Structures are given as C-alpha cells and as structure tokens.
Amino acid sequence: MDHAMPLSKGIIINLDRLPVDEWGRIFDATGGSRPIFKIGTTIQKKSIEILSEIRNHGEMMIDTRLGEYLPDVDECIEMYKPYDPWAITFQCGNDFVMRQAHFHRITTTAVASVRVVGTDEECRRRNGATCNEVILQLVREAYRQGLTRILCSMRELSVIRTDTISEALEFIVYGNYPLWNMDPGAADALPVATPADALRMGADFIIIGSPVTVARSVTDPVGLVIEAYQEFQKFFVEETS
Questions:
Q1: 64, 65, 137, 207: which has the fewest C-beta neighbours closer than 10 Å?
Q2: Higher pLDDT pick, 210 / 189
Q3: 236 vs 232: CA distance, rounded Å
Q4: If you classify domain 10-85+152-240 with CATH, what class do you get?
C-alpha cells in the first residue's frame, strides 16, 4: 500500500528567519515532496536560487506578503505566477494580507497572515480601523469569495488582546477547524495541540509560524520542523495501514 502523504495534507512553514542553508536541511529531511513552504519576507538573491531549486522538485511556495518589502520583487512574482493562477490578494494597509493559493491538486484554501503591531489606536491610524475590524474585514471578504477554510498563524495573532482573538476565531472557524498553536502562553485563549492531535481533529494543514522563536531548542529550530513532518508521516501510515 502506498503510504505517501495525500495531496490534501501538508505543513506550511515560515522560513523567514532561518538561514538559507538550513532550508536545504529541511528539504532533505522531508524527502523533497513535503512540506509546503511558506516563505517569509526576507527574500534575497541567494534565497531565490534556493526557491527555484525547491520549485523544480515540485514544491509549492507562498509569500503572504508578496510584493511588499522584497528586494527582488519582479523576479519573485515571475517565479510565483505558475502557482497562483487567480492572483487574488486582499490587502488593508501594509500590515495585513490574505492570499488565496492553489496547491496543484490541493483544495483551495485561504491562508490568513495577520500582522498586528501596537494598540488599536495605532492600527486605526495606519489602516483606518481597529485590529479586530481589519481581521473581520479580511475574513468576510474571504467568505464573500467562497473561501471557507481559513488557517491562521497563532504567532501573528498573539499580539492581539485575548477578547479580540476569541471574537475573530469564533467568526472564522474556531471549534470547527483546528489550529495548532505553536506558541503556548502567547494566546492563552487557545488550546495547545500536538501535530498528531490536530490531524486527528481533521486538520489539513499545520502552520509553523516561526520555528526560530517557538522551537523547543533555540539552537535547533529546524528540528521542530522535522519533528512535525515526522508526526505527519507517522499519522498517515497509521491511518492507511
């Protein structure tokens, strides 16, 4: 029996703050077929070369803030085009982006990357709305577009006050769509689950918001990524045996 991971499952990883030579270590450990890499904003020329190599092996790359703060933005956009046929991006100011991506044959999913820094007053000055209003605006727009499954990185939501997190998640999918909170303590309103727990609850994706800041060992953030991938492999072998 083939125990390869179904195309409807995957891990999204933010490689933003990892040295590019560590990316290769993750790629080797996962056999080159998984996970789905979520690339951060610090894309330099050398990084683009590595991204091209990953893409040539069939990987999917997403930048939730594509076009912002990227030194080689034109080249990046050209590289991403084949994987984003609709090129749908929802933006509110420079700090909030929601992106729809089509992962080959994977179910279309909305990936919400919400970066909120500062108070509601500061957010209103930058975006004309409070943190909560901006989040709900993005979510409602996603639903209007027919995107009903939204994944949020808890690390990026952790700076929002607890009542705002609860309200936003209740509106989105909390209780129906499991999220893996990689940063216990930062968002106390959310449960902390292992990758296996999330999978058994029906999660299609696990988001690792920032391996550098949430790794159990600060000297080996890549180990956290590899551990999560191994959990995926173990789960699917058990399910298909």
A1: 137
A2: 210
A3: 6
A4: alpha beta
